[in-house]
Amino acid sequence: MSHLTCGFIGLGLIGGSIAKALKASDPDMRIIAYDTNPAPLEDALGDGVADSIFPAIDASFSQCDYIFLCAPVQNNDSNLAQVARILSPGCLLTDVGSVKTAIHSQIRAMGLEHCFIGGHPMAGSERTGYASSKAVLLENAYYILTPTSAVPEDRLNGYRQLVEQMGAIPLVLDSQTHDYVTAAISHLPHIVASSLVNLVRDSDSADGIMRLVAAGGFKDITRIASSSAAMWQQICLSNQPAITALLADYIKALTSVKEKLDAGDAAALYDFFDKARIYRDSFQSASRGPIKSSHSLHVDLADKAGALAHITTLLAKHSINIKNLGISHNRESEDGVLRMEFYEETAMHQAAQLLQAKHYSLHIQA
Question: 20 to 30 Å CA-CA from 322: which of 54, 212, 250, 339?
């Protein structure tokens, strides 16, 4: 049985996560990689994800069955030119960018439509780089494929199977539909979250009281504003037509809400919130979307020695790994609230059961 060889041009968060997911599903799969930064390459070689690493895009990549373009989108021009020189006839070329129109235009101009299927794993993290990558990032995430009209059906089916092998869910769309969909459910929300944070920053008092009490819902809905500024600058510029069209619609929607408020229209305001609630409750598991859910528990924490240690020791005894934790004292009582974030939803629910059995008061973040 022959095993695939997959090449990665760029080995950051997404490229690293795909490589790890593929290697986990087939340890005999050959992974080769290039990155302008040697550190992630050495890390991937050291942890057994990469079989070979290279300082340039050279003939070594001619042996690949798949080549994943995972570098920042602004590097696609130069990387594509180098890949085109060494691409073997049987290799399928793909990318992982969240905007598809631009790269499809490049592929068409270079005459590579017969061997290109755009790819977008709709998964991510506020953290970046290979060190933050993990195979589970793709688990049950939608992975959108945007094939050209010239790609044979058997190649599309083969890529579908590879995506399923990663643990993701393939979904085929044309490139323009993809860009409009992602503008609505991923790109615009990042603009909105950043706008809210900047509004609070500009409206805050000199003593920073808004920042002090910013917690709970505000921190949850603006969590994605902590993402890479450079990355979102490039995404917005790359998908400008779709984003600006939806942004104009969103501004009209906000204006409409303001008019309802100004008029004191109670029925219209109720209808506004109720329609949003009903539609939001109809969503499928958030883990399948582009903005990953935060699997978090909030636990009332007594202000006494050993309280934190008792909780963390309890979870450690049951092999539950905590991704992140923090303590908030912004309540009127003397006690605090411990916020624990987990890598997986199952770990969060297991922790909740253990803590509830010990009579802790807690809240699960949906």
Answer: 212
Only one residue has tokens 């993290």, namely 125
CB of 297 closer than 8 Å to CB of 339: yes
Residue in the block written with tokens 């990663």 = 166
Quote the CA–CA distance of 195 and 212 in Å, as a whole number.
Answer: 18
d(CA 36, CA 10): 7
One-letter identity of residue 332: E
- Report the 10 Å Cβ neighbour count for 363: 14
The pLDDT-based confidence of 316 (bands split at 50, 70, 90) is: confident
Sheet of 295-301: strand order equals: 322-328, 336-342, 295-301, 362-365
SS (H, E, C) 259-302: HHHHHCCHHHHHHHHHHHHHHHHCCCCHHHCCCCCCEEEEEEEC
- In the chain the beta strands, taken as DSSP E runs, fall at 5-9, 30-34, 52-54, 66-69, 92-95, 117-121, 142-147, 169-172, 295-301, 322-328, 336-342, 362-365
Q: Provide the token pair at 160.
A: 């579908």
Strand-pairing partners, residue 119, are 145
For 208-230, the pLDDT digits (tens) are 888 888 866 787 788 888 887 88
Instruction: Give the predicted TM-score (pTM) of the model.
Output: 0.73
* Cβ atoms of residues 231 and 238 within 8 Å: no
Token couple for 5: 């060889």
